[in-house]
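FORM 7B - TANDEM STRUCTURE REPORT

SECTION 1: FIRST PROTEIN
SEQUENCE AND TOKENS:
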Amino acid sequence: MSTHRTTAASAGTWTLGDVTVNRIGFGAMRLTGSALGAPSDRDRVIGLLRRAVELGVNHIDTAAFYFSPLRSANELINRALAPYPDDLVIATKVGPGRDPAGDWLPLARPDQLRGQVEENLRQLGRDHLDVVNLRQHGLDSIAEHFGALAELRDAGLIRHLGISNVRPQHLAQAQAIAPVVCVQNAYGIANRISDKTLRTCGEQGIAFVPFYSIAGDGREAGGVADNDAVLAIARQHGATPAQVRIAWTLSRGPHVLAIPGTGNPDHLVENVAAGALRLSADELASLE
């Protein structure tokens, strides 16, 4: 498929709270290094971020725990894009944390979330955060954690709240406390465990933001998962398997936002162009 002059607007838009974003966004996880852990080229990555915005990307997903020994995703975003465009929405996530050596810490307690929010504010050079997702792990109830974030929202540090890596009951727990503008869960052609949550989000006007939708089982290891059906459709359209997976993701509903990440400028252009790829009913059926 042609990638010539295709922008992130080609997939349409969605409203996150009170801000409208293009449905093709950008995930910052790979900014700090390759899948094998090799450090990224700083100037190349800064250029890639600026190119993403030029291509119409106005929704960037990041986290303070996206860092390598030499790079921090938040600081790269700050260096590349500040002063930030008025329409740019930067979503971050709190809950997980890493110590300065990069080792994972236990999930933050509710009283530790303010420190994580302030860390994101410092690194991004902002006085408030557009969207903060509570990323949970192993909690039966997220009420206490989400309540702590709702207090920071009331205090003006956060504009909108979301949740990540959640089970269906967590959405209701959060909504009883404060509005939820997005849910981030692992989801893709081969991982449909969140189908019910995706449908619930659509019914309630909440954005569903899948992660690992391209990498599939490989996840952090990088690369693109493919199967015969994906490869056949890619050949038919002159597209890449990643583009087919992004197009499938967007086909799941108008409230579904894609956040493919890459450190490769060519892949960035291809990912954005995938917003213009429309799969037929037969092609979608073959991917079921």
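SECTION 2: SECOND PROTEIN
SEQUENCE AND TOKENS:
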Amino acid sequence: MASPITPQPPSGVTSTLSTKGRLRALLKGMRPKQWTKNATLFIAITFSGHLLLLNEFERALLAFLAFCLASSGIYLFNDLLDIEKDRQHPVKCSRPLASGQLPVSWAVVAMVIIVLVCAALSLAIFAFPVMPSRDIYANLGGSNLLFSLCVLAYLVLMVLYGVWLKHIVLIDIFVIACGFVLRVIAGALVTPVSISPWLYMVTCLLSLFLALSKRRNELVLLQGKAGTHRQILNEYNIPMLDQMITVVTTCTLMAYSLYTVEAPTGYHNIILTVPFVLYGLFRYLYLVYVRKDGGSPDEVLLHDRHMLVTVVICTVIILAVFYVLPH
């Protein structure tokens, strides 16, 4: 049986592509649209009221770039592992590796380079020192070291997910949630600030909501052939996912509402965002259940105007409460 990372591409595809075409395919394989997920790194600096502090913003921006590269390296790694299965998928068959637009050798070299650049950016954080009196994580080794370890933990977790954990029912969904929580933790470490545990809870619940919705979309899209594409999908069914989505949706709204009321910062006007968060959740459920969408949260955000406007309004309110309105 052929190795999952060394399949032969469709005949006559990669051989006719120019270098420019392969570079375009490589960029597509890095999935820059999904870099929006890494915006969660800015949660800590935004909700702590430190967004306008230049040194901390520069550190957060470097952290964002490092995680963008880390996630792109993982996307290429997962596509290499799943190349044959993706060719049987009605949507994923158009991915650069599965379609043969991107040679396997290019993907492997690019993955190594991307991870090395990610490591360089993580080390570059040390060029933006934190005053000892401001480093609340000094007794744990310092924010710079902890951030680097957080990036490493993310990479290790995602590699384990690709080769093992994604084949374990429910664990696969929780690992996806852990990836988002690690981003929030990384944002808090690199700033460095301390944020409410409620925000970690909201991040975890919201990511579970998105992951469950994605699983449901896969079952609907692939119908009876879901298990042939990914064996773990045989362990799920739509009624089970519907119940879990209902539980997670309720818990997400409750956790966020409690954060706005119990926020230790005292910015309780943030409660103004609750109706928009509720609408955003309902809109996403509408897209999942009625439009049969939700397979890719980043595409939903970028292509659905209602979701995009809702996110923009929430962002404006949050920025106004923390940085414009009197405390």
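SECTION 3: OBSERVATIONS ON SECOND PROTEIN
The two ends are 64 Å apart (CA to CA).
The mean pLDDT is 89.

SECTION 4: SIGNATURE
Preparer initials: ____
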